[in-house]
Write a structure and sequence with these properties.
- By secondary structure, the chain is an alpha+beta fold.
- Among the domains are: 130-220, Calcium-transporting ATPase, cytoplasmic transduction domain A (Distorted Sandwich); 297-326 and 446-553, HAD superfamily/HAD-like (Rossmann fold, 3-Layer(aba) Sandwich); 330-443, Calcium-transporting ATPase, cytoplasmic domain N (3-Layer(aba) Sandwich); 626-767, Up-down Bundle (Four Helix Bundle (Hemerythrin (Met), subunit A)).
- Helices cover 57% and strands 14% of the residues.
- The chain contains 27 helices and 22 strands.
- The longest helix has 38 residues, at 661-698.
- The chain starts with 8 loop residues before the first helix and ends in a 14-residue tail after the last helix.
- The chain crosses the membrane at residues 20-40, 47-65, 77-105, 242-261, 267-288, 569-590.
Length: 777
């Protein structure tokens, strides 16, 4: 693995403690002087304040020299001159105040530029340090650097593949999401290639090294992150830009006052009132307020530069997996034979899969638990890698896994296979006592808030949205088309992603949102890297400027609005403060404002601009009462249960299309039971309980009017289907003249319900706070 030149930890800690120590010393000097002054010990007070001022002069001088050496002149020059000026005119309290203001501003920016080392350390921490090498009489653990090409390695369950190589045992089940972003595990057979950095999601397998650690995939990712981080230059501070014109003006006024009056006191008075305290405090206060407010939404922004850049951004690059999708496979739909019970099929499959470590088995078990199903403990469980699980559940032999459908497979099974292909889903077949009973379609679903978030991001000022993903082209383009993205690039390697982000960054200020180690280099290459840190990798979070701790992408739009407002308030505070200072400089230049009074006036200006800067802490927020939030979660959970049952409408229409009217008649009775016993009571409860409760957070009752109108259409179609059932019951079966209208009602109701569910989830359910990940709910 590549190495990097890192200071010893104690040196790093000492370096990071400089700014806090500076702030502590100047603060102590100011407070001690204030206590002495109140006690009547004026000389002691002056000594304390002089000491604080003198302490500040030393680093201020160094900052000025360093800035000049780099061809930059900023607020530090004004600060240094004002510190020296207060000593010359014996305005010691003013000097002490300027010193602590300077220390505060520097402490705020102290963490800038430290990201690259942390990025590399985080990436390296994830990398294996050793590997297990096969030898004649067993296995030995050796340092990773000792692995040479051609050696046979053993990779245990849950371990990271140490180097690139080929599978030499029967089959390897791998989680490649760290490199490709693809959430579903993949199988690699004997002779197929595997890459370093991926995780063994199955049992132990053996591989032959085809590259050393230094030349393997994961080492390349670390190098990419190093190169990208090296490109990220620090952003010029808002205060420096304002100082670009304020500094020469302040010096000119001070010099003119001295020349015209012959009094050095006037010149010093001008410098005192020109002390850039509004720049040194107002800007940082506004920025810190914005950072604080963003953190309340679960958005951690690392520094003021990142906040400022976020407010400037016009382009957004996103990964797919874990960013626009949930990042984990879920049971999208449970399909069964016409007389099957989807809930029972899922329960049996989940019971059998409880002991399996496979990622799809875990998804099936989680889906069952989410629905509150009681699982049975399986016996005689046996798992064949790459095929599936066989177990005894409640006295029945259940198998869950892959299956080659025979030519005479039932129609529902062929339909399930075709639907899985269309939806880009993995399919787990379920057999009970040797009979094919059901199929569980597993997909990486789009986030509920994806559509709403994309709209909000565009309204926040982003005019170009791009997807860069390592996933397959078909699902990537489908999601990109649905969300209206400007460009979609699929099957991207980490190097491709970095190149793509660099290309976007050349056009505009670019934000990159990602999840997973494979995104870390691209995040470092962007202007602002945003990590889905609640469930993303540590490396990604460390490489990012912004971390979304609540796993809510829509909060990025909130953060952008906060960034723009905070920057606007910062500039406003600094500009107003400087404007007031300019007026005071005029009075001081004409001898109307002595240094002592000027220092007090300057403090008044400081208080005013700081209070204005604190406005960045406030902002409009949609408040959802606790009772309404609980209601949203309840109806959202009911949606999850209802969604899988919606397939009964399409399955019944499929039977009708085949001409099996007798089977359709029975299925129509089940449809009627579902609609009137389960679905319509749910819709009525939403109209009665949920929609009135949403009127307050949404502003008015009209916000839910369209959804209520949709309920009316759902009720109409349901009653039309019941009328068809009643006619069929009276006639002893479905007649030919009912077929066309029945098909229209069944397919129409299915489409309306799917759309209605998505709209409610997107517009309303996303308002509910995300439950604490540590809770047991």
């Amino acid at each position: 693995m590549p190495s990097f030149d890192a200071r010893p930890r104690w040196v790093e800690r000492l370096r990071r403690s400089r700014e806090p120590a500076f702030l502590a010393v100047t603060g102590l000097a100011l407070v001690a002087g204030g206590i002495a002054w109140l006690a009547g010990a004026r000389e002691v007070a002056d000594a304390c304040w002089i000491a604080g001022t003198a302490v500040a002069i030393v680093p201020a001088t160094w900052w000025v020299v360093d800035a000049l050496r780099n061809g930059r002149v900023g607020v530090d020059v004004i600060a240094l001159l004002s510190l020296i000026g207060t000593l010359l005119v014996e305005e010691y309290l003013a000097g002490a105040l300027i010193a602590i203001m300077l220390a505060t501003g520097q402490a705020l920016d102290a963490a800038a530029g430290r990201r690259a080392t942390k990025d590399l350390r985080s990436l390296l921490d994830r990398a294996p340090r050793t590997a297990r090498r096969r030898i004649d009489d067993g296995v030995e653990t050796v340092p990773l650097e000792d692995i040479t090409v051609g050696e046979v390695l053993v990779v245990g369950a849950g371990e990271v593949v140490p180097v690139d190589g080929w599978v030499t045992s029967g089959l390897a089940v791998l989680d490649e999401s760290a490199l490709t972003g693809e959430p579903l595990a993949v199988s690699r057979r004997r002779g197929e290639a595997v890459r370093s950095g991926i995780v063994n999601a199955g049992p132990v397998f053996e591989m032959q090294a085809r590259a050393t650690a230094e030349e393997s995939t994961y080492a390349g990712i670390v190098r990419l992150a190093q190169d990208a981080a090296a490109e990220s230059a620090p952003v010029v501070r808002v205060a420096d830009r304002i100082a670009g014109w304020f500094l020469p003006l302040a010096l000119a006024v001070s010099g003119a006052a001295w020349l015209l009056s012959g009094s050095a006191t006037r010149a010093v008075a001008v410098l005192v009132v020109a002390t850039p305290c509004p720049l040194l405090l107002a800007v940082p206060v506004a920025i810190v307020s914005g950072l604080s407010r963003a953190s309340r939404l679960g958005v951690v922004i690392r520094n003021g530069s990142a906040l400022e850049n976020l407010g400037h951004a016009t382009s957004l690059v996103m990964d797919k997996t874990g960013t626009l999708t949930t990042g984990r496979p879920t049971g999208a739909e449970v399909l069964t034979a016409p007389d099957g019970d989807p809930t029972e099929v899922l329960r049996l499959a989940a019971s059998a899969d409880q002991l399996s470590p496979h990622v799809l088995a875990d998804a099936i078990v989680q889906e069952a638990r989410i629905r509150g199903l009681e699982l049975s403990l399986p016996t005689e469980a046996d798992e064949e890698v790459g095929t599936g699980v066989t177990a005894i559940v409640d006295g029945r032999r259940v198998t869950v896994g892959t299956l080659d459908l025979p030519a005479d497979a039932p129609g529902w099974a062929r339909s399930a296979k075709g639907r899985a292909a269309l939806d880009g889903a993995a399919i787990a077949w379920v057999t009970v006592d040797g009979v094919l009973t059901g199929a569980i379609l597993l997909t990486d679903p789009m986030r509920r808030d994806a559509f709403r978030t994309i709209r909000r991001l565009r309204s926040a000022g982003l005019n170009r949205l791009v997807m860069l993903t390592g996933d397959r082209r078909e699902p990537a383009e489908e999601i990109g088309s649905a969300l209206g993205l400007d460009a979609v690039y699929a099957e991207q390697s980490p190097a491709d992603k970095v190149a793509g982000v660099r290309a976007e960054r050349e056009r505009a200020v670019t934000v990159m949102v990602g999840d997973g180690v494979n995104d870390a280099p691209a995040l470092a290459a962007s202007t602002v890297g945003v990590a889905m840190g609640a469930r993303g990798s540590t490396a990604t979070s460390e490489a990012a400027d912004v971390v979304l701790t609540t796993d809510r992408l829509d909060h990025l739009a909130d953060a952008m609005a906060i960034a723009r407002r905070s920057r606007r308030i910062a500039v406003q505070s600094a500009a107003v403060g400087m404007g007031l200072s300019l007026v005071a400089m005029g009075f001081a230049a004409f001898g109307l404002l002595p240094p002592a009074a000027g220092a007090l006036l300057q403090e008044g200006i400081d208080v005013a601009v700081i209070l204005n800067a604190l406005r960045a802490l406030r902002g409009k927020k949609v408040h959802v009462p606790v009772e309404t939030a609980a209601m949203l979660h309840r109806f959202s959970a009911e949606h999850d249960e209802l969604r899988d049952q919606l397939s009964i409408l399409r399955d019944t229409a499929g039977l009708l299309a085949t001409g099996d009217l007798a089977a359709t008649h029975d299925a129509l009775r089940r449809v009627d039971t579902f609609l009137f016993d389960t679905l319509l009571p749910h819709e009525e409860a939403e109209d009665r309980e949920l929609y009135p409760a949403l009127a307050t957070p949404l502003g008015n009752s009209e916000a839910t009017a369209t959804m209520s109108r949709m309920h009316t259409e759902i009720d109409r179609l349901a009653r039309r289907l019941r009328t068809h059932l009643q006619h069929a019951d009276a006639a002893g079966g479905i007649s030919a003249d009912q077929v066309d209208d029945l098909l229209a009602c069944l397919y129409g109701l299915h489409a309306v319900l799917k759309l209605h569910f998505v709209q409610e989830e997107e517009n309303y359910f996303t308002l509910a706070p995300v439950p604490d990940a540590t809770s047991n709910s």
